[in-house]
Each structure stands twice: as C-alpha cells, then as structure tokens.
Amino acid sequence: MTRTRFHQGLDDLKQKLLAMGGMAEQAVERAVLAFQNRDLSVCELVLRDETQINAAEREVDEMAVDLLAMQQPMAVDLRFIVACIKINADLERVGDQAVNIVERVMDMVNNPRADLNIDIPRMASLAINMVRDALNAFLQGNVELARSVLERDDLVDNMNHEIFEATSFAMTHNVETQRDAIDTLIVARNLERVADHATNIAEDVIFWVRGADVRHHAKT
Q1: Contact, 214 vs 150, CB < 8 A?
Q2: How much is the CA Rg of the chain, to the nearest whole Å?
Q3: Of the candidates 11, 20, 27, 121, which lies 20 to 30 Å from 72 by C-alpha distance?
Q4: Helices 3-37, 40-71: crossing angle, 10 deg rounding
Q5: How far apart are CA 121 and CA 126, in angstroms?
Q6: Longest C-alpha distance within the chain, in Å?
Q7: Burial of 74 by CB count in 10 Å (0-12 exposed, 13-18 middle, 19+ buried)?
C-alpha cells in the first residue's frame, strides 16, 4: 500500500466512524423521544436501525485491521487507528444503550406512570451533547473540546444519583407505579452509560493527538 493510499484509507476510516457516530447519536435521541411520548413507533425505528450500527461496527473494525496489517504504521498514525478501534466499540455500545431504553419504554406503555419530579430529557441532552462534542473533537483533533467532555461527566453522574433517589422514594410509597419507577431508573442508568462512552471517546481523542493516557481523568 502506497503512503497516498494509506492516508486515503485513514480518511475513509475516520469518515466511516463519524457516520456510525451519527447513527448512534440519532438512536439515543429517538429513544429519549420514545420515552417522553411513550411512542412504540419510534421504538421500532431504534430497533430496526440497530442492525445498521452493528454492521458499521464490523466494517470499521475490518478497515482498521486492514490498515494495520498492510502498512504497519508508527507513532501518530498507529495511535489514530487504535483510537478508532476503541471509539468504534464505544459507539456500538451507545447504540445498545438506545435499544435498552426503548425496551423499557415498551414495558412502560402497559403500566401506570409514576409521579416523579425528575428531568430525563435534560439528562439525555447532556449525554447526547457529550457524544456530539466527543465526535467533533475526533473530527477536529481538538484536545480542549475533548477535555470539556470529560469535565461534564460528573454532571450526568449527579443527575443519575438524583433520579435514583426520586425513583427509590416513589417505589417505596406507591406500589401501583413501582414498575414505571423501576423502568425510569433503568432509562437514567442507560443515559449515564451513554455519557460514560462519550467520556471514553474523548479520552481516546486525547490519546491519539497527545499520546497521553488520560483514563481516570489524569491531567494532560
């Protein structure tokens, strides 16, 4: 493989990964919309599109392995490909979180709603924006944007804790709506995991650009 073809391959890999990121991001947005409206038709869209995300994951992995095998890249190019492989896995899991959410929604439509003073849409917006900014950091090679994603993780964790407290209270005070409260808690947990995957992606961007391992939020 010539260097020109190799660098074209790197660009193709980046574009494929960004397209997959768009699909995963859309899946979470739709899952939250389904939650807000208890809309089974939107649930079906998320479940239908899961196969596309899984197919994209396999294609990205194959492209990355081919580039590793054919060129034996060093330094920044090697870090880029390794980061792509890791980001690919996190994006597939973001899609899985969306599926988990709509599965809870499909259960919720059959049960009475719990009276909960919580803001799942706000939590979802925070998590989705983290994914979006992590992907933009990857597109631009922007370390500062990636670090801003890391700094927002605690916000989502705090919201998840607040929702845990509210749903736990509801479960102990209203037996009739226990199931809905449990499902809502699981939805929040999945959104917290979306934010975790966004954090992982941001860490991989910093690894690629700076060659620094910032897992556990070490300073760069």
Answers
A1: yes
A2: 19
A3: 20
A4: 160
A5: 9
A6: 68
A7: exposed
Q: Encoding tokens for residue 183?
A: 């499902």
Amino acid at 36: Q
Which tokens is 200 given? Answer: 């992982």
Backbone angles phi, psi at 55, to 5 degrees: -65, -40
Q: Are 203 and 150 in contact (CB under 8 A)?
A: yes
- Each residue's pLDDT tens digit, 188-203: 999 999 999 999 999 9
Instruction: Please list, in sequence order, all residues whose beta carbon lies within 8 angstroms of the beta carbon of residue 105, skipping any fewer than 6 positions away.
Output: 31, 34, 35, 38, 39, 40, 43, 183, 187
pLDDT at 219: 45
Residue-level pLDDT at 216: 58
CA atoms within 13 A on the CB side of 39: 12
Contacts of 55 (CB under 8 A, 6+ apart): none
Neighbour tally for 203: CB within 10 Å: 27
- Dihedral over Cα of 21, 27, 33, 36: its sign: negative
User: How far, in Å, CA of 220 to CA of 215, rounded?
Assistant: 11
Q: How confident is the model at residue 4 (pLDDT cuts 50, 70, 90)?
A: confident
